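Q: I'm building a small set of examples for a reading group on sequence design. Run inverse folding on the following structure and report the sequence directly after it, with nothing in between.
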């Protein structure tokens, strides 16, 4: 018993920070940032800084809740304690659906990136292949999954560092190439080439790049010293903000913002005019590794989450059955596989704007959960003036990102998709869950 307890509280604060970097970086950053750059230009760096601030508020809110009352159900449990079992039910299923959309987003991104080498292969073919590979990794079990994820996290972090090094070499003109001289925006029009409206619409893609941070909040209960959770979150967000803003700042300074496209990573675009024949291939492969890592992590996560929902009475008890393979609840994995199949079908029917639509919808659902986390913190824990101010700022930033989708026509289908999913979840919660008072009196 003591060994198990020791194992479950074995992380130092800096280990949690580094683990967070590996879990968070995915194609939302590597590919989705291209959409944000296309909307707002060089000011995408400011969008990422604001997103980092909003994400920090969420991390601190969840870390404090976890330190105060560690629970397996985590933010679903806290939402239920703060606002009732209907909200807890909706929060859990909203998070499950957001992760299914993340899986679909990553699958689509992986398929787009793979066409860099195989131009004529349909997206759905690659989506099918990566789906099968992802299921294979999850079926390795917890230990096998952890080993694979550690390797993938190291590869994608190394890819960013490679671009930063090459970017600085290009800025100081130590690389041979025909690219324009790097430039820093010196006026409002250069910084915001599409105005405040474009900047507003880009915020959701900046927030989406930080998606997954709530998982690290859950792992705060594994810290040796629970009070180190805020320190760990500060280091994590600071490290991510530096990596993101430095790399994106280099990218937008090297080429004009209108050259970026959601069919290619901004970092490949930025170095396309330099004589680096190896770079597009190596970096594209590294991004595929990053996306595959995020996809399998989400697949593993929804499998575990559904079991927890069933245990708490928020999902059919069948998903809690001990039909297991290497500690994996196969019924829960089966429902996640249905989500994978839907993503493959969507890739077949909507190949054009699929990545943007799914990324937008997933980002909005994530922010719904994050807002619920912050509100639960405000309801359950004693607040100071500074904590209230920080929580309000975080909520306003997230609402700004959600509403910004409506400013751009291309993102609206994703907005409507997310609102549709959220409305269905809320309706089901209202129909199947009774308030606690009604349950106790029955």
């Amino acid at each position: 018993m003591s060994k198990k307890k020791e194992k479950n509280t074995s992380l130092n604060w800096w280990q949690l920070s580094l683990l967070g970097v590996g879990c968070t970086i995915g194609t939302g950053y590597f590919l989705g940032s291209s959409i944000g750059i296309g909307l707002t230009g060089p000011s995408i760096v400011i969008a990422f800084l604001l997103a980092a601030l909003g994400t920090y508020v969420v991390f601190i809110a969840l870390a404090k809740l976890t330190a105060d009352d560690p629970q397996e159900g985590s933010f679903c449990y806290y939402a239920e304690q703060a606002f009732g079992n209907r909200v807890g039910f909706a929060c859990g299923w909203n998070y499950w659906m957001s992760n299914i959309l993340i899986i679909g987003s990553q699958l689509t991104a992986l398929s787009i990136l793979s066409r860099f080498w195989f131009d004529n292969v349909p997206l759905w073919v690659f989506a099918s292949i990566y789906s099968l590979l992802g299921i294979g990794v999850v079926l390795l079990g917890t230990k096998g999954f952890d080993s694979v994820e550690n390797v993938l996290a190291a590869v994608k972090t190394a890819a960013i560092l490679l671009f930063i090094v090459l970017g600085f070499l290009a800025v100081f003109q130590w690389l041979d190439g025909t690219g324009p001289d790097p430039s820093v925006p010196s006026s409002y029009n250069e910084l915001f080439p599409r105005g405040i409206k474009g900047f507003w619409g880009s915020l959701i893609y900046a927030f989406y790049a930080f998606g997954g941070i709530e998982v690290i909040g859950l792992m705060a209960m594994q810290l040796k010293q629970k009070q180190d959770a805020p320190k760990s979150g500060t280091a994590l967000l600071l490290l991510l903000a530096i990596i993101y803003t430095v790399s994106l700042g280099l990218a937008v300074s090297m080429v004009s913002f209108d050259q970026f496209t959601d069919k290619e990573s901004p970092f490949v675009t930025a170095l396309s005019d330099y004589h680096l024949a190896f770079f597009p291939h190596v970096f594209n492969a590294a991004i595929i590794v990053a996306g595959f890592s995020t996809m399998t992590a989400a697949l593993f996560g929804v499998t575990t989450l559904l079991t927890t929902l069933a245990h708490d009475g928020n999902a059919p008890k069948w998903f809690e059955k001990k039909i297991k393979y290497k500690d994996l609840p196969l019924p829960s994995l089966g429902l996640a596989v249905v989500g994978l199949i839907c993503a493959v079908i969507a890739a077949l029917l909507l190949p054009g704007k699929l990545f943007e639509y799914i990324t937008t919808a997933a980002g909005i659902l994530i922010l719904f959960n994050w807002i619920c986390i912050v509100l639960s913190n405000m309801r359950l824990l004693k607040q100071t003036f500074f904590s209230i101010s920080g929580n309000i700022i975080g909520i306003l930033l997230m609402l700004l990102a959600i509403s910004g989708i409506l400013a751009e026509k291309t993102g609206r289908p994703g907005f409507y998709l997310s609102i549709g999913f959220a409305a269905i979840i809320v309706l089901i919660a209202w129909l199947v869950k009774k308030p606690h008072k009604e349950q106790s009196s029955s």
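DSSP finds 20 helices and two strands in the chain.
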